[in-house]
Amino acid sequence: MSKKESTQEKNEEQEIKSTSDSAKQTETTNEPKTQKPPKSKETKISEVEKIILEKNDLNDKLLRQIAEFDNYKKRTAKEKDEILLYSKVLCVKQLLDVVDNFERALQVESTDAEFKKGVEMIFTQLSQSLKEIGVEEIEAMNMPFDPQFHNAVNQIEDENFAANTVCQVFQKGYKIGDKVVRHAVVIVANP
Predict the structure, then answer these.
(1) Is the pLDDT of residue 19 over 80?
(2) Measured between alpha carbons, how far is 136 from 92 in angstroms, rounded to an integer?
(3) What are the φ/ψ torsions at residue 116 (nearest 5 degrees)?
(4) Burial annotation 175-186 (CB, 10 A radius, 16+ → b, else e)
(5) How far is CA 2 from the centre of its chain?
């Protein structure tokens, strides 16, 4: 045998050895690992029920969050309206003294007709502006006394008026919607 042939045989033997060694290694690594036993129907059903419960819980939480947010929006809108009304009432209260003074000025006799006409025009414009923002005069004269709208400063006996009726108005009252800005100051008749 030549040297070449002997080296070839040795190489072939080594290849056979290495392939058998690698096959042994793959056999040891491919040994069946601990396989999980297949899940039973009961286990699968309980897992599905668990998932459904979690889903229902999440839906419930989501619905609660939506309801809380809706309540928050309603509450803030209501607070905004209340703040707007409160600010209107504060501004109108300051202007009511001016309205009262204009009414007094109109009751005074004046020799200057143009001056009186100018005062009337300003008073009319001011009254119109108050109406546009929702200010209304509280009716008092000949009306039954209502403590929500009237402030009685005196009671008199007068047969011309029914019992508990307003017979004289000292100061006009005003309201915005249902909110009283200033109570009417009145005298109530008792026959």
Answers:
(1) no
(2) 11
(3) -60, -40
(4) bbeeebbbbbbb
(5) 102
The whole-angstrom separation of Cα 130 and Cα 93 is 11
Instruction: Name which of 160, 147, 149, 148 is nearest 189 in CA terms.
Output: 160
- Taking a C-beta distance cutoff of 8 angstroms, is the pair 135, 181 a contact? yes
| Residue 173 Cα to chain centre, angstroms | 32
Q: What is the largest CA-CA distance in the chain?
A: 156
d(CA 187, CA 178): 23
Per residue in 71-101, pLDDT (tens digit) is: 999 999 999 999 999 999 999 999 999 999 9
C-alpha span between 18 and 128 (Å, rounded): 109
User: 32: pLDDT confidence band, cut at 50, 70 and 90?
Assistant: low
Q: Across the strands, what pairs with 154? A: 187
3-state secondary structure of 106: helix
